[in-house]
Write a structure and sequence with these properties.
Shape of chain B: globular
Structural class of chain B: alpha/beta
Strand content of chain B: 5-15%
Largest sheet of chain B: 7 strands, mixed
Order of helices and strands of chain A: HHHHEHEHEHEHEHEHEEEHEEHHEE
Radius of gyration of chain B: 25 Å
Bound molecules: pyridoxal-5'-phosphate
Number of strands of chain A: 13
CATH class of the largest domain in chain B: Alpha Beta
Number of strands of chain B: 15
Largest sheet of chain A: 4 strands, parallel
Number of domains of chain B: 2
Distance between the termini of chain A: 33 Å
Helix content of chain B: 25-40%
Strand order of the largest sheet of chain A: 3-2-4-5
Oligomer: heterotetramer
CATH architecture of the largest domain in chain B: 3-Layer(aba) Sandwich
Number of helices of chain A: 13
Number of helices of chain B: 12
Largest interface: C-D, 172 and 168 residues
Helix content of chain A: 25-40%
Strand content of chain A: 5-15%
Strand order of the largest sheet of chain B: 2-8-7-6-5-3-4
Radius of gyration of chain A: 24 Å
CATH topology of the largest domain in chain B: Aspartate Aminotransferase, domain 2
């Protein structure tokens, strides 16, 4: 049954109660009007409801099954946050409503900015990027703006570990940089010698995440940070793995200059079958002048927008309005639901669950990619031995898991580990 | 669990973090709140912004959203699924995207559509980058837009493409804000918004044909509701637009401060390899059963890394779901009558404003569902502030972007606006303008 | 996978964000407190959401499949009516809020009463019964009250056609009556001779529906009505099939004295996997003094309740508050959505769909139970021939339909037709 | 379609309706409205009744409802399924009912529960009928209730059982409204509500033991939230209650003017055949796979017709779904802290009323989360009307049922009531009473 909605469409079908009632006048000149009706489906409301209800039933989802997709943090998205963010005052606010009519919403943004500063250890936050990748773009554009402002125009390279997520090199390219790969050592940490060799006057910056995409904590991050800064480059932190260290360590203290957060991961806003997310960027003093507009400040008791006029060095606007505003409200509610203790529970339970699952898989005979290392919020196993022995590959394993009603882990990522599974049970799963 | 892992405490699990970096939680954050307490607190916060009536547009519109749209979209299977990379686990979302692409193509009169990008503004940026890739051999690095392009779209596209050295310019407007191409220009691409930011209808045929004569590609920026009624970009001029983008918010997405919504992108079949973002296609599995999958994935960042067509990963899937359900419910007839109702409401509003207040139309050209009125005596910001006291959002003041248009206000009446609301809005304008006279 | 929520429960599991926060004082004496905690499941919010989401996926529903369950009217339940009836002003109204704080709600009830009067052709309506069967109870209690008020105490029997729905005789019993069956003739109409033979001084009334549960229109209803009234009995109309004649004929004109409506059928409020429904009763002048309280009247511009003091002969109260109030609001919205033309479409499309499906099945070789009669909103086929030939019964047929993703029609009802299917496609289905 | 049926018009399909009965539609009804117009109209109508704060109880309570409850309950598969008669097509609902029964039994301390009946009031009626069936050989037809039984429950049960000649009577109350059995009575069943209608705690052990000594069955009427904290009826007195009923509204069901909610019914295993309504049970199919089905169906009206235990057919399935999800989310600890919070809030409210206003407690006995206060100077109706102007619903005036209690108001503060709301309520009472002083 994969009939499309067009297959069930029939001339004259319609959801009559959705049509506005009345007689309409028009002053649009004939030449602007379309002559043909667009070929949209012609169906009843029941047909629509039934068709899309049944389509939904063909998806795996957190709400239906265990979804240990590494790097994606498929944890429980509280229904309460969705409900509260759907209050009419939030849903019906027009983006151009003046600040005087928007104190509720602006107050929410300001509060979220403050929480994210605390969580990351950075000094300023702009909430507008619409997903991790747009946050990356903002981050690298800021690095670019920083160098340009200093007239330091020879820096044309962004360093990226071989294990990095594909968005990192893609982003560097979008910002007009060349991306240069840095090897990862046997133990999963960045190869310091390779790094040293790559650093130089053309280094604009480095993009890292910690725990890394090898699912281990980059232990020599302080050394890396000094090396990069000494070479005149800046450090970019990919926030996708922040849930692993929430309340345990802060990127700000590790020496990072800029990071986007993936609110749809760390702050549990729904993935929605491919978004929306939100990728706020946090920066230190160095990059503060460049953060994207708009953002919110508090003057006395009133909240107001900061736009271009007050931020002449900003990299500018990244969306028509205020990014994925509704997602920001959801994330704030989730953060408030967690609170001080809850944030610690995130990193602790995420790590505990991953470590436990890793231990169980090791006991069952599977091979960890980095057996000497602690698991973080996720861990990597290599199915190379099994693949050779059984003549099947990691993808076959993954598909077989689907047959058992468990979503497959992330496969073949990071690219440098052969036949791997990146497994992230997340903190909201229980033992059952 | 601790024992099975072989440690003695949870803290041991974090032992690889150097002591110098360890912190102990967030002393400044408050303790966690219950859902009940948060519901109460945020209800009060959201109430602060509640409006009675909205006459603002400018890229975000107060349309009716059928209850079925979000009832279905909020099902856990749509809400809490990941991006449909694993086709077997995502047939629902994949088929939906496929249907979405078909609908958006039908609406715009184009051959192919992608599964959306972030929003209308960033869709324009992606279209510009795409045009640049397609015009690699073109002499110019200039992209030229009609004068009344949404200023925030212009700014967004500029921020995003600037890193690659691409320049965005605006045509000079005529008196009425419409754009007439200047023979001297020779851009690689021309951006045309229809209806334009002022709500007015550009002479798209002339501009498109001129652009194509110059060897430029045409990027159209459109409002999907207007396409229930207006000529689709695929049939503008002799050959039609080459790339079409827009924002999906009018298709069943709440205004919600402008986001999340989704940006759509369509093009000709021959350009599909340069179309960024995901595309779902129909396919057949080993048993000959048909199914849906992401096609052309090789362009994506997780495979081509530095050479991908775009860095977009997480995108606006859920909003595409809502938009697809909305278009299915409305169908051609519903979309058309919605568009007609919007035009009619705005027409009556503007006529009444001209008849009963000191304000006048700023530009005397045909419009769709937005129109600029000139208040003459007071600034549009002042009017908006005054009407806020009556819980009316009067419109979008233009002075923010064009200081010489400080007395001009962009107003919009969608199909939701009743005659009573229009009457009381016009009364309020009279009151506000009168008070200043 | 039929693990229950108790199977996944584990000591200490909880949905923490649902617990009220604070320190609680108590003055409840020790002896009133329970010593053991009730054995409710101990699970996380994710576990709850996942468990019940997955349970829901094991149901057939109108929203997922064609559901031609005869007599049950499984038609589309508009999402809009559900949404609008869930507005905070409706959901948060306390049943004891005084009339002054309740004009919105009372106005809705009044409007629904008026619409139902128009639709049925009766003179008064009470909305409080909570389903068809409670409406039946109200109806028969009113018949009883009527006879009692006249001192006519010898009437101990309620006549019920053999084809009647089981609630009819059960209700008669609950009201202290004996139910006496009346045969149905070959053509599906009531056997007039059998009726005449049964009528007499002990007849309190007769319970009928029209179209009857044989799915045909009872053509001699006027004659039946005269006969019963002449014998001193009253006529009760089972409103479950009202959608078949909406705008085509009215029970009031057929001579019925009282009828409950099934709002969850005719007015498309959701069946909910077994309710809630609503069974408002409509009566003619004769029974007006006896209708259940409370109901709403309009005094000038204000709406107010009528309670026992003003209705001393009322059969009384049938629920703690105002019945299934929320369902009444849904039904009103649906009725308003239909309006004048929509109501006609209900009976026309329901009949058209049933007649078409019947014609197709006849063409395919199936046997109608009443081949000489017009189908109404539903029709009966007998699988007796197929059963004999294939050695299977109607229930086997029904189960096989489920395998094909179509909900089985009603089987073995009415009891008098052997191996039957009662098929009701409803008016909201389309040809696809 | 018309052609395939063999007629020439839709009207032909109605030809069997005698001409004398034919009408042509509904001339007095208005034309159909769009969802958009209805949404606007009903939003305005519902806003007329919107409350700021609710201090009323009396059988319907303003508790917090977790968002997950209705998000899941409103899924089409629960919302638009039929009664689970076809087990294969209804495993979801059947398993849910089974789990519901287990939870309700645990909460009440009873052995078996049914899948609910209409509401608390009609549940009491069904319990009375059940007791009568069980006590067929009992000399008396009298059922006796404690004095402070919810008056609407009393009335509902009376209307429903009257047809069968059953009489319901009330015990005489003591000064504080509590009930002490009178040795002279010899009913077939005794109804005890705990907490009683005034919110107070009856001496249930004494009454239960007395009733059992008389050969009467005990019917308990309880509030499910209170059972997070209070002793369950299964352990009242020596042998516990025989039948337990109540209303499920506090378990995640919105007040919604009092309905729909659901009534629950539990009893001892040995009485299960007389327990009306549906019961779901676990079973094994022909392949040995376990599943769920309706058990004891033989008692139902569609099989036993005139001899069924009840005429109930459509019932309150969806609300049972909500209640089951609610109980699962709260668990024993959440239910307990909710009950504790309710008691605490009411305690503080009453103390503050006594400390700061002229009103006093009418009865000085332990209460759970409701309490009767006596305003002394004005009628409770007058207070309610005055506080309505401040958007506060002050409570339930008792004068409606007991004219001699016209100055008495039943107040309730659930876990949702904040200290601020309590403070401003008490201020408002002072203001209202003061104004009359
Ligand atoms: C490590 C890492 N970085 C970046 C991203 C990109 O984030 P987004 O999908 O929000 O654009 C992801 C997403 O999966 C990721 O896992
Ligand atoms: C003919 C008929 N009468 C009465 C009823 C009982 O109505 P309810 O289920 O609302 O109690 C039904 C329900 O199926 C029915 O079909």
């Amino acid at each position: 049954m994969s009939r499309t909605i067009f297959d069930i469409s029939a001339k004259g079908g319609m959801a009559w109660s959705q049509h506005p009632r009345g007689e309409w006048r028009s002053e649009i000149p004939e030449e602007h009007l379309r002559s043909d009706a667009p070929r949209l489906p012609e169906v009843s409301e029941l047909q629509v409801v039934r068709h899309f209800t049944n389509l939904s039933r063909k998806n795996f989802a957190i709400d239906t099954a265990f979804y240990p997709l590494g790097s994606c943090t498929m944890k429980y998205n509280p229904r309460g946050a969705h409900r509260i963010a759907s209050l009419p005052g939030f849903l019906n606010r027009h983006p151009f409503a003046p600040a005087g009519m928007s104190q509720g919403f602006l107050g929410c943004l300001f509060e979220l900015q403050e929480i994210l500063k605390e969580v990351t250890g950075m000094v300023a936050v702009s909430l507008s990027p619409m997903a991790g990748a747009q946050g990356e773009l903002a981050g690298v554009l800021m690095i670019r703006a920083y160098h340009e402002a200093r007239g330091d125009n020879a820096r044309t390279e962004i360093l990226v570990p071989t294990a990095a997520h594909g968005t990192n090199p893609a982003t560097a390219t979008m910002c007009g940089y060349r991306s240069r790969e840095i090897a990862v050592a046997e133990d999963g940490d960045v190869d310091i010698d390779a790094l040293k060799a790559a650093l130089g006057p053309s280094t604009a910056g480095i993009m890292l995440t910690n725990p890394s995409t090898c699912a281990v904590f980059e232990r020599r991050i302080e050394e890396i940070s000094s090396l990069v800064h000494e070479a005149g480059g800046l450090l970019y932190y990919d926030g996708a793995n922040l849930n692993a260290i929430l309340g345990k360590a802060r990127p700000g203290a590790m020496g990072f200059d800029v990071l986007p957060l993936n609110l749809h991961k760390t702050f549990a806003t729904p993935h929605g079958g491919g978004g929306p997310g939100a990728g706020p960027v946090a920066v230190n003093e160095r990059l503060k002048p460049y953060i994207p507009i708009p953002f919110v400040v508090k003057d006395g008791e009133r909240f107001r927008w900061i736009e271009e006029v007050e931020m002449p060095q900003s990299i500018g606007r990244l969306s028509a309005f205020m990014g994925n505003a509704g997602i920001l409200v959801r994330a704030l509610i989730y953060a408030r639901m967690l609170g001080r203790e809850g944030m610690l529970r995130v990193s602790e339970f995420a790590t505990l669950n991953a470590s436990y699952l890793a231990a169980r898989l090791v006991a069952a005979g599977f091979q960890l990619a980095y057996p000497t290392r602690r698991a973080t919020h996720e861990f990597l196993i290599s199915l190379q031995a099994e693949s050779k022995e059984l003549g099947i590959n990691a993808m076959d394993f993954a598909k077989r898991l689907l047959d058992y009603g468990v979503h497959a882990p992330t496969t073949y990522f990071p690219l440098l580990v052969p036949e791997c599974f990146l497994i992230e049970p997340t903190e909201t799963e229980t033992m059952d | 669990m601790i024992a099975e892992i072989g440690v003695t405490s949870i803290d041991d699990l974090f032992e690889e973090i150097p002591a110098s970096l360890r912190v102990d939680g967030f002393p400044t954050l408050a303790t966690g709140d219950s859902e009940m307490d948060l519901a109460r607190e945020f209800a009060a916060r959201s109430r602060m912004d509640e409006l009675a009536v909205c006459f603002a547009g400018g890229g975000c519109y107060d349309h009716h959203i059928p209850a079925a749209v979000w009832d279905i979209t909020s099902r856990g299977e749509f809400l809490t699924a990941y991006t449909p990379y694993q086709a077997e686990a995502s047939q629902g979302t994949l088929q939906l995207i496929y249907e979405f692409q078909t609908m958006i193509s039908a609406l715009t009169g184009m051959e192919v559509a992608n599964a959306s990008v972030y929003d209308g503004g960033s869709a324009l940026a992606e279209a510009v980058l795409m045009a640049v890739r397609l015009q690699k051999r073109h002499a110019s690095k200039q992209v030229l837009s009609t004068a009344a392009l949404h200023p925030n779209y212009f700014d967004t596209a500029t921020s995003i493409v600037r890193g690659q050295g691409i320049v965005l310019d605006c045509m000079a407007p005529s008196e009425d804000g419409l754009s007439v191409p200047d023979a001297a220009d020779s851009p690689l691409a021309v951006v045309i918004q229809q209806p334009n930011f002022f709500g007015n209808l550009e002479d798209v045929d002339t501009i498109v044909d001129w652009a194509h004569e110059q060897g430029a590609l045409v990027i159209a920026v459109v409002n999907p509701i207007s396409l229930g009624l207006l000529r689709p970009p695929g049939s503008w001029g002799e050959r039609g637009a080459d790339i079409v983008v827009g924002d999906g918010q009018p298709l069943g997405i709440p205004m919600a401060s402008g986001g999340p919504s989704f940006g759509f992108m369509c093009t000709r079949s021959k350009f599909v390899r340069q179309l960024p973002g995901r595309i779902a296609g129909r396919t057949v599995d080993v048993d000959g059963k048909s199914g849906f999958t992401l096609t052309l994935q090789a362009r994506e960042q997780h495979i081509r890394r530095g050479k991908a067509t775009s860095n977009i990963c997480t995108n606006q899937g859920l909003l595409v779901t809502a938009g697809t359900i909305y278009m299915s419910l409305m169908g051609p007839a519903g979309l058309r009558s919605t568009a007609q109702a919007c035009h009619d409401r705005t027409l009556r509003l503007v006529e009444k404003i001209e008849a009963e207040t000191f304000a006048v139309r700023a530009m005397d050209v045909p419009f769709f569902h937005e129109c600029v009125i000139d208040l003459q005596s007071i600034s549009a910001d002042a009017l908006v502030d005054r009407l806020a006291s009556r819980d009316i959002l009067a419109g979008v003041p233009l002075g923010h972007w064009w200081p010489d248009r400080a007395t001009q206000l962009l107003v919009c009446a969608t199909e939701r606006r009743t005659q009573e609301e229009i009457d009381s809005f016009v009364d309020s304008i009279s009151w506000a303008l009168g008070a200043n006279a």
